[in-house]
Amino acid sequence: MKKKKILVAASTFPRWKDDTEPRFILDYCIGLSRYYDVTVLVPAAVGAADREILENVSVIRYHYFPVHAWETLCYPGAIVPRIKEKKIRLFLVPFLLLSLLYHLRKYEKQFDYIHAHWLIPQGIMASFCKTPCLVTGHGGDVGELNHSVFRLLKQRCLQKASAVTVVSAHLSAILQKQYGYDTAQIIPMGCNTRYFTPACRVADYFSQGSRKVVLFVGRLAEKKGVPYLIRAMQRSDALLVIVGSGPLESDCRSLVRELHLEDKVRFAGPMSHTQLRAVYASADIFAAPSVTAENGDVEGFGLVILEAMASGLPVIASASGGITDIITDGENGLLARERDWEQLAAQINRLLDDPGLAETLSRAALQTAQRFDYAIIAEKYADLIG
């Protein structure tokens, strides 16, 4: 039987092999390709191929500005942080929207179904197409921009969609409160548990000697809460390794100097998916100190938490956004209040002082990660798409 053809539209995607950009959409498409003929439609990026086969997934990158060197709205990072970094990039938004709509309309007749990741902009633009469309909300696209014209466009998106999913119960509650939309299914993105494993551990990978390593992986942006984790290191003898970059990197480095924590905090920069295998597995604790940002942006789910769990790490995280869909305090991880760096420090020291608890949480974390393997997640989406 011939497979259905699915067009997956997204705006966060690897630009090339071993890119440092998040690859959860690629991993999702790899899992989905068991059921469908999958093509991904994403914005162009400087230095990236217009068309390619990336890990057996067909990729189309559409251009959205006549001067291709100026196509800097989406990478690295995400659209909203890119605009905050340089306000002039706001000028590129209408070009991106019009080009996305043009290419969706151009290709839709070749496909049986569209899966639009993020309500803004992919879901909104897909609502102007005739092909059946599943829309998935991931975080800020649900929690932010719920006023004026954006509200009307998101409402249209929800009404026109064949189905809507969100990656956490927290986002489902926002859709119900803001739009009275109560039929969204909760299906998260996942983790490749055959790729991230404890077997990737490398002894003294961080050259830390006898010190334990607390690891953070992610964008250095407000909702990630990294400054609170840095402050927590005042009360710990561990080494904090920060993997990632972003708009708050300079502030975070300044805070480290202000608190005289240069010997306790190491900035490792962004790393590729391949590099992260050993990084996760070679650490001792994973920390995700996420917070609700001033604009309401919150952690939609927390895929790096799953990757850390699959790598055998006990996890300490804030009880923020969709994180509580993954972690139950004291069962498969430890939770702390948002912005409470003292409680965060206490939880870190609790694990450092109790190897038995760390081992118990690590085993439970491995079992949790298995439930979110992409083979399982892709099957859930295939059941929904039909």
Task: Write a structural description.
There is one protein chain. This protein has 386 residues and is an alpha/beta fold. 37% of the residues lie in helices and 17% in strands. A hairpin with a 2-residue loop joins strand 3 and strand 4. Helix 3 packs across helix 4 and helix 8 (226-232) runs parallel beside helix 9 (249-258).
**Secondary-structure element series:** EHEEEHHEHEHHEHEEHEHEHEHEEHHH
Strand order of the largest sheet: 3-4-2-1-5-6-7-8
Strand content: 15-25%
> Gap between N and C termini, in Å?
14 Å
Radius of gyration: 21 Å
Task: Calculate the mean pLDDT score and round it.
Answer: 95
Shape: globular
**Count of runs of 4 or more consecutive helical residues:** 14
Structural class: alpha/beta
In total, how many beta strands? 14
Largest sheet: 8 strands, mixed
The residue ranges in which pLDDT falls below 50 over 5 or more consecutive positions are: none
Helix content: 25-40%
How would you summarize this macromolecular structure in one to three sentences?
With about 375 residues, the protein is α/β, with parallel strands linked by helices.
Secondary structure layout plus pairing:
Layout: E1 5-9, H1 24-32, E2 37-43, E3 51-54, E4 57-62, H2 79-85, H3 93-107, E5 113-117, H4 119-126, E6 133-137, H5 140-143, H6 148-160, E7 163-166, H7 169-179, E8 185-186, E9 213-217, H8 226-232, E10 239-243, H9 249-258, E11 265-269, H10 273-282, E12 285-288, H11 303-310, E13 315-318, E14 334-336, H12 341-353, H13 355-371, H14 374-385
Parallel strand pairs: 1-2, 1-5, 2-4, 5-6, 6-7, 7-8, 9-10, 9-12, 10-11, 12-13, 13-14
Antiparallel strand pairs: 3-4
Helix pairs in contact: 1-14, 3-4, 4-6, 8-9, 8-12, 11-13, 12-13
